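Researcher: Let's run the pair from yesterday's discussion. Sequence first, then tokens, for each.
Model: Starting with the first of the pair.
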Amino acid sequence: MNRPRWPVWVACLGCAVYAFLYLPLLIVVAYSFNDSRLNAEWDGFTLHWYDVLANDPDMLGAAWNSLMIGAIAAGTSCVLGTLAAIALHRYRPPLLTTLVLAPIAMPEVLMGVSLLLFFVAVNIDLGLTAVALSHITFCVGFVAVVVRARLEGLDESLIDAARDLGASPLQAGWHVMLPLMLPGVLAGALLAFTLSMDDFVVTFFTAGPGQPTLPLQIYSMIRIAVTPEVNAISSILMMLTLAVSLTAYRVSRDVWRAQL
């Protein structure tokens, strides 16, 4: 069968939209190799700014903070989000659904201010601990949505068969349910890690002085000037985010099919 051909104006509009979205990203990557301290003009190809980046203790420290917080947020929200997804799938409590999905729908500025006021009220010092708790708060909802989509496509008769064969509820959940929903769990964890690495607004309100994450460090640098070093770290962060996102997509393709 011949595929339907799009009108020329639709193809042109699509190309224009993709160019608007991705051309600035390609420019950032290209100028990270620019042999000039400014982005005003192209002076030649160089890897100097990646060498400068590798020897910048402030940037390396911020990158380590982001990786550590992202790993903690991904691991913790993966466990909590999976448990919440199981509860939502089996019992569908309206209150729990609202509590899990509220951080997803809530504006980031409002969440950042709310968490800031909460940490001040309970005497939790602003810093990496507060940032990690904040990221777990909004990542749980995303993990729950992904895992719940996977659970909707599960064959419940397999769990019933395991129970009929003498398996306890815990054994049926561990040996039957968990392997079946593992792609959704992994996809949710990767998504949580990506969201944590890229978050700026919530982190801005809850991070303490002297312990910046990578987005905050980049923001502090571009307030002076957008140097090729900023382009270099932005390119690395973009590649990392893209790699994690593609991995999450590949391990969860059946999750998206289950929603159809």
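Model: Moving on to the second of the pair.
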Amino acid sequence: MTKRYVCKLMSSILISGGTGLIGSEVAAHLTQLGYTIKILTRRPTDVSQNLYNWDLSKGEIDPKAWEGTEYVINLAGSSIIGGRWTSKRKKELINSRVGATNLLVETIKQKNIPVRHFIQASAMGYYGDSGDQVLTEDSPAGNDFMAKLCVDWENAAKPIGSNAKLSTLRIGLYLSKKGGVYATLGKVAKFYIASAFGNGKMYANYTHKDEFAKLVEQLFADKLDPGTYNIVGLNPFRMNDFIDDIAQNEGAKTWLPNMPAFLLKLGLGEMSATLLHSYRVTSPKLKTAKFHMYQTTKSALKAL
């Protein structure tokens, strides 16, 4: 046991997007396991804090960031929910994902950095609006902006496959009390004013913070094969039920009518698709591996 712990202390993980919600929580989990965590930041390098500068506009990453690095988790990307998708905003969304991934992959390949495993973030938006169709890791990509963005994001990481193991994690609605969908809707639910959007019958699935961290841990420990995973709960849900479950978890109820789809489209434009599209995403791979920690949405919420 001591030998295993010392080995992990010698293993370093470099995380892009490490100061965000998902990055900070998976970093905390991996730190507890004994890994050394290094974060890429736009701020000046501070080795004492394990912070290393990178500059997308210049195509530069501080060489010190790679010293001893064996694993990479690429979570970089501007928030999808952050205003209307103007042409300028779309370029920012693309560059912060595809551009960042290109820089990481090209640097590793050009400098022949001995990375063992590269984890690439993606999203359930990869599949596009799919109605009631059950989606698996083998389902085809959609053709809307979000789907194309996810495809390009994933494709940017593929060249790393000749240098390191590559795993792509398609993330659902990330569940954490520290931020994201639950932190927002949970606060609203306490005041009995939470409601779904549109008809509320669209499907989605969650990514619980504990299960995300567990998947990264098991991939790095070679307990699961590298590959593409929908890191989502055991069962998808309809949004009306999800809002009800959040309210119940906060000791409240829902009573307001759903926000009409046309108002969202009017106010948010194309970005409203992220709230109105249906993603009935599942993961046969994780189900077969008996991976899931929570069997229902309610139990996942309660665990927060």
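Researcher: Give me one sentence on the second I can quote.
Model: The chain has one domain: 2-302.
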